[in-house]
Amino acid sequence: DANPIRVAFVKTMNGASICNDDTYSGVVSSFENLLLAKNGYACTDIDIAIEELDPEKYDMVVIYAPSVDFTEPVINKLDAFLKNNGKNGKSMIYVPDYSKTNLPNIDEFLADWSIKVENNLIIDEKNADMSAANIMLNVNDPDAIGKLANEKLPIIAPLSRELTAISKNNEDVVKEVLKSCDESYPVDLKDMQTVTGEAGARTVLMISQKSHSEQLKTVTSSLLVLGSSFMPNNTYLTQNAAYN
Questions:
Q1: Residue 128: strand, helix, or coil
Q2: I need a surface site. Which of 12, 29, 162, 213 has the fewest CB within 10 A?
Q3: Consecutive 10-residue runs of the chain (244 residues): their mean pLDDT?
Q4: Rounded to two decimals, what is the model's pTM?
């Protein structure tokens, strides 16, 4: 690709890893190297607190499973990047840690994009693989997904948090892309046992878009949130032919 998508992959904040390396080092490596770099994305690891997130230098930013909340200056940096001086045209991927709940600044940032990461996990005894937390998903928005190589293979999302769309007084376009099956239900994140809602399909992958018109064309910035931080695990991506 003569014009690869340039990715700022946030690994650290003030020199400290943003995620729990003992839990996520292999998954983050799979996401960055097997999904992005091997598919033509030009990835650069950055420290989000120290380094500049320059819209002239990057097209997309990735935040993976932060275990600590971001400071207000970091949130402002992400916001400014996606706004791109009013020109939009930028993207962000956010993947929450499966167990962290007290991240108010990040939660407020997501809410501005009409997305909430719920404090529960999705369980499904009927439509799962190996464990009730290893749930199978359905494509809810085929246009957003595109053509799958083999539509008969299941899409697996281990330990997925539920995502919900927030009704805000803005013009965000929110797409619920992947959802759990109708038999799934939420359990409390703390004990992973207490049922917190009725059975029903719940969103695991969501995209929110902010757009405006500029010189007879529409320019858009997008935020993709993936509820399952273990979904990009190499085990499911390349080492097993049983999954999409």
A1: strand
A2: 213
A3: 93 96 92 92 97 97 97 97 94 96 96 96 94 94 90 92 88 94 96 94 97 84 96 78 84
A4: 0.95
